[in-house]
Request: fold
Amino acid sequence: MKSSRLHLNLLRDTEKLSSSPVRLRVMLPVMALLACAGCLVWWAMLATQLLLVKTQVSSLQDDIAGKEKAHANILAQMTEAREKQAQLDQLEMYSAARNLYGGMFARLAEVMPIRVQITKIEIPEQPPQNLMPPGGKGKPVWGPTGTVERMSMRIMGRTPKETPVLSLMESLEAPEFTNTLVVVKDPRLPDASPKVHSFRQDGSTTEDGSRLLLFDIEYRCQPRVFEKPQPPEPSRDEAGKGKGDKKK
Reply:
């Protein structure tokens, strides 16, 4: 008679062994050691990089400190260059506004009537320009403060009668004078030129007992224009040469 075999499992769960050849309690410490070693290596690399960056920063700071004096000198030179350029611009504007009267006075002597005695020819000076900034504080500006300055000329003298004076005024309307003097005959205009300030008899008498006429006439001159002269435009020949050079 055959009997069935009995299989009894008398092992507890805690006594069962894993089928893996390496146990977990061995791997965990190994993995922990490897993680610690990796962290140490990473921290060492970060420390090395930080040291390199600090070294570079220190070197750059030393370089900047060494160049601060040179930078300050450059800034001072740039400021001085701007001031010199402002002075040059000012001188160019004053030079461009310079009016020449010598040639006009030479021609005036040629057309002066014989019976006219000139006692005074005056070109009144303009009041000094106020170059101080508003409030009077700070450095003066490199003027001029305006772009146009009105000029005039006054002719005063004596004559036995008014006919020679009228002849002189007609002579001053010639083209060789209108380049310097402005002639606007309409008396209704505020800028009429010439203006007769006075035309009256002198209180004193001459040797023959006749009285002279005193006259005071003011002519408006061409204004002074304070502008930098524009560079001359190239001529057609020079422009053609420049284009030819570019083509080559």
About this structure: Residues 68 and 74 are 10 Å apart (CA to CA). The chain has five helices and five strands. The mean pLDDT is 83.
